[in-house]
């Protein structure tokens, strides 16, 4: 596994977006008003009707030239389509000049944006009777306007309003009091075709991108009317009317023909694929069909690669482990740890000045975080989701040492992926005592015919997890754990307690079986912030003996272990355990 690197995709985040200033702020940091984040993918301009998928389709007059309406937005001109004005110039409507209209990212557009979640786009066969559009090579956004307040935000709610001023001004000038548009921000290359590479390079320069254009796919809201339940044809008709004389925001083209014929026609033109959907409501399935061998990726990052600053800063002073070592460790174990973080809200424990100094728990997406660090709105908090190696390395550069994950994933937050039995040793508990209790748990689970995964906590304890099939809730998981805990208390009363008050434990091992959505657990292969740079390590049951030294699993040893043994916690990624029968048996024994 050494040297491997994982780069994941960003799925559409559920629920509502955060307020524009949300995010955890490191102590001593200053808030920034100009935070930007990645945008979304876009389409091309053209008439509202369908186009023939030939060399004249997709706005292409000939193979190298773009349709006039798209060229106008990219910097050319066309009657009825005004090129977006530069930052220092506002062109008049008609012959009279008017004062510049300020574009205000603000609460009104944010409040409107809270009503919507961008429809997911999946890969598959859309079948016949679909509207087909190019899969524009850009970055997908939700564009909202309420009065003078406008907002451009990506699927994970990161705001890009100030990064793409021409799109924001175009949105502010639409003939509507309020609107919400699903579209794609694009920048044109030298041929006049949308280019994600050019978009990314211009964003990376750190300045506003005045040449960007918003290519509109769908209209979700118009003047206090929610349009999402209307047929696609009606939404598109209203969108075409809204954008008839717009600058900076243009309508995506629909293409005629069978899906296979259209895909075959776009491939020679450098179009990466198409998007197809039926004439249903907004939440009806959206399908992406690639014109190449690779899937159409909607989660590409506009942010630069993760940096490594103060690489020689020592974070584990008695072990000589510096930030460079932390980054190297998480880079190498990313293929193992990222699957356990994927789609799961995470809390990161950070030690900016090393483990002898203060630490804090980062729940929210930090200010100025890159777009590959995903945000998800959960219970009023814009939480972090780490689903690729770059996000993991970016947090490691922020001195993020320990990663605590939810027991459930965003797709089903009320359904835990495991039932947990946390063996938390007391002052009198020895390692052989922990082994005895853990093996007693294993025997009970075998009698109940349930699978299990065991791992060290990375400190003194042991975590035993029962991988669950989908459909369980936290009440069932906790009831199961309580049943196991009660059995242990009866079988091993001299070693085990269920008492959470430390003064009443009398040094015994606590069997912690609490289960609820926001309760986190240190994920497999996470470091711990104590001497030795230990790692929470999955082990085989036959390794759990009194002679095992859990302190041997460290930053310096886990990479070789993974190469030799693989991920011994892989069963947690696709649980099969069913608790119904086990719960009935435990109740019968109570």
Walkthrough of the structure:
This protein has 590 residues and is an alpha+beta fold. It folds into three domains: 50-87 and 104-290, DNA ligase/mRNA capping enzyme (D-amino Acid Aminotransferase, Chain A, domain 1), CATH 3.30.470; 314-411, no CATH class; 418-524 and 569-589, Alpha-Beta Plaits. Helix content is 22%, strand content 21%. It contains twelve helices and 29 strands. Strands 4, 7, 8, 9, 10, 11 and 12 form a seven-stranded mixed β-sheet that branches. Strands 18, 19, 20, 21, 22 and 28 form a six-stranded antiparallel β-sheet that branches. It has a six-stranded mixed β-sheet with strand order 26-27-23-25-24-29. A hairpin with a 2-residue loop joins strand 2 and strand 3. Mean pLDDT is 83; it is low at 1-102.
**Unreliable residue stretches:** 1-102
- Put simply, the count of helices is 12
Sheet bearing the most strands, described?
7 strands, mixed
Overall CATH class of the largest domain: Alpha Beta
Count of separate structural domains: 3
Sheet-strand content, in percent, reads: 15-25%
Q: What's the name of the CATH homologous superfamily of the largest domain? A: DNA ligase/mRNA capping enzyme
Helix content: 10-25%
- The end-to-end distance, rounded to whole angstroms, is 47 Å
Shape type: elongated
Provide the residue-averaged pLDDT: 83
Tell me what the CATH architecture of the largest domain is: 2-Layer Sandwich
Using the coordinates shown, work out and report the CATH topology of the largest domain. D-amino Acid Aminotransferase, Chain A, domain 1
In oligomeric terms, what are we looking at? single chain
Q: Count of DSSP E strands? A: 29
């Amino acid at each position: 596994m050494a040297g491997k690197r994982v780069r994941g995709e960003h799925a559409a985040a559920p629920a509502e977006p955060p307020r524009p200033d949300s995010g955890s702020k490191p102590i001593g940091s200053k808030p920034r008003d100009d935070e930007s984040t990645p945008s979304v993918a876009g389409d091309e301009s053209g008439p509202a009707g369908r186009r023939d998928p030939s060399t004249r389709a997709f706005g292409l007059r000939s193979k190298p030239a773009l349709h006039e309406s798209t060229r106008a937005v990219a910097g050319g001109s066309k009657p009825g389509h005004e090129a977006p004005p530069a930052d220092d110039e506002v062109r008049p409507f008609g012959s009279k000049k008017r004062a510049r209209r300020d574009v205000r990212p603000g609460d009104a557009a944010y409040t409107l944006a809270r009503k919507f979640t961008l429809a997911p786009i999946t890969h598959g066969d859309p079948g016949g009777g679909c509207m087909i559009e190019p899969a524009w090579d850009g970055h997908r956004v939700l564009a909202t306007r309420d009065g003078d307040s406008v907002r451009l935000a990506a699927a994970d709610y990161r705001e890009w309003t100030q990064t793409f001023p021409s799109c924001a001004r175009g949105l502010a000038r639409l003939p509507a009091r309020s609107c919400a548009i699903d579209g794609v921000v694009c920048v044109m290359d030298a041929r006049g075709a949308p280019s994600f590479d050019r978009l990314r390079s211009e964003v990376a320069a750190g300045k506003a991108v005045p040449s960007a254009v918003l290519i509109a796919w769908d209209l979700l809201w118009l003047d206090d009317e929610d349009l999402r339940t209307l047929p696609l044809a009606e939404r598109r008709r209203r969108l075409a009317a809204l954008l008839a004389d717009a600058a900076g925001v243009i309508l995506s083209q629909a293409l005629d023909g069978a899906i296979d014929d259209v895909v075959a026609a776009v491939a020679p033109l450098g179009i990466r694929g198409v998007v197809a959907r039926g004439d249903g409501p907004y939440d009806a399935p959206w399908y992406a069909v690639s014109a190449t061998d690779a899937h159409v990726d909607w989660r590409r990052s506009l942010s630069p690669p993760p940096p490594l600053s103060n690489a020689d800063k020592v974070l584990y002073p008695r072990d000589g482990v510096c930030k460079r070592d932390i980054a190297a460790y998480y880079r190498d174990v990313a293929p193992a740890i990222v699957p356990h973080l994927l789609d799961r809200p995470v809390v990161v424990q950070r030690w900016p000045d090393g483990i002898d100094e203060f630490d804090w728990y980062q729940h929210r997406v930090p200010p100025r975080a890159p777009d590959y660090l995903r945000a998800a709105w959960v219970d009023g908090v814009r939480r972090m989701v780490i689903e690729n190696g770059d996000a993991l390395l970016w947090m490691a550069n922020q001195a993020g040492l320990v990663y605590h994950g939810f027991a459930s994933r965003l797709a089903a937050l009320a359904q835990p992926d495991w039932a947990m039995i946390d063996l938390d040793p007391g002052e009198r508990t020895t390692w052989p005592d922990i082994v005895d209790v853990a093996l007693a748990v294993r025997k009970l689970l075998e009698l109940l015919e349930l699978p299990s995964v065991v791992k060290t906590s990375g400190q003194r304890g042991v975590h035993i997890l029962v991988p669950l099939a989908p459909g369980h809730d936290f009440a069932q998981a906790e009831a199961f754990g309580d049943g196991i805990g009660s059995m242990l208390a009866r079988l091993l009363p001299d070693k085990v307690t269920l008492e959470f008050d430390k003064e009443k434990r009398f040094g015994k091992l606590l069997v912690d079986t609490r289960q609820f959505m926001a309760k986190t657990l240190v994920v497999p292969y996470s470091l711990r912030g104590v001497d030795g740079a230990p790692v929470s390590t999955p082990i085989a049951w036959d390794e759990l003996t009194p002679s095992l030294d859990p302190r041997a699993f460290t930053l310096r040893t886990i990479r070789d272990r993974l190469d030799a043994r693989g991920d011994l916690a892989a069963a947690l990624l696709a649980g099969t355990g069913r608790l119904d029968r086990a719960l009935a048996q435990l109740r019968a024994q109570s």
